[in-house]
Amino acid sequence: MEGKNENHSVTKVWFTVFGSLTFCYFNVRKIPQRLIRFFSILPIIFLFTILPLYHTAMHAILITSFFLTWLGSFKLLLFVFNQGPLSSDPSISLLHFISIACLPINSKNKKHHTSQQIAKKSLESTWKYVLKFLLLLLAIRIYDYKEFIHPNIVSALHSCNMYLAAEIVLAIFAAPAQALFGIETEPQFNDPYLSTSLQNFWGKRWNLIVTNVLRPTVFIPVRNSFIRILGKRRATLVGVMATFIVSGLMHELIYFYGTHVRPTWEVTWCFILHGLCTAIEIVVKEACGDRLRLNPVISRVITIAFLLLTNRLFFTQALRHGVVSKMVKEYSVLFNFMKGAVAMAIENFR
């Protein structure tokens, strides 16, 4: 019964999304005045903030809140000012507009590739995701024995699980748009485990769709607002801190959707800490240049160690309120279903 109710909620939510974005496509984008466009889109942004509350399954909550409440709303704000992916192509079709608005994709600049290059890249990408899917299944099975594992290893397992699940889910949702419109999309992740610094991790490797949305909606406006008062260097640091604070608050909101519990702000403090450390890193690099450049292997170890250590703060609320355990349970249900389906297929071929 619960599964039927969740399916009904998913249908209702996404029909609402399609209707709202259709209104934006046919009506809002024809309004030249930015203020009127803003007030026209404001009810839709409000709608996007309440839609995750209609779900009960944890993955549906997280996906809807991330895709719509965060990415979708921010893309619509850029759309108001004729910026961002929704305004980049005046001849964009309705389906393409809806896909970019509510899916974690941005179109890359068009490049000409030979059919051999496309086939090779597709094959490499497929094998990469197959490997990561198998690693995710392994991580899920390891959770069954977490009481026998050291807490530090379990904490690291949470981080690995989050990365693998996020990359696979985002790729699954991006794939239909790539196939349907024949576009090459920006990658969601760029091997974050190879990060050599916090700047490198947050700016060039981790969840790049968020980075590409936060940069024009938060960082650039805040930095430009403070340049005359503080100068470019200090304004840049203010922009960095503002970006991390907004990211922390959006994560708090996503956690609230999953727990329905008043926030205790550990996630926000985690992002404030990362913002401060990133700002310090920027200042030190500007002051010292290449004199403090470390061997890439050493810098990667230091960066990953810091990320794993601070991720305890990130996961505190999720562990306290059972978000992680609910997600693992849903993964296990999916895993058992797939195992049964594969066994049935093998039996049918015999």
TrEMBL record:
GO cellular component terms, semicolon-separated: membrane
Localization in the cell: Membrane
UniProt GO BP: lipid metabolic process
Membrane topology, as annotated: Multi-pass membrane protein
Keywords assigned by UniProt, alphabetized: Acyltransferase, Membrane, Transferase, Transmembrane, Transmembrane helix
GO molecular function: O-acyltransferase activity
InterPro entries linked to this entry: Wax_synthase, Wax_synthase_dom, Wax_synthase_Magnoliopsida
Tagged with keyword Aminoacyl-tRNA synthetase: no
Protein name: Wax synthase domain-containing protein
Organism from which the protein derives: Aquilegia coerulea (Rocky mountain columbine)
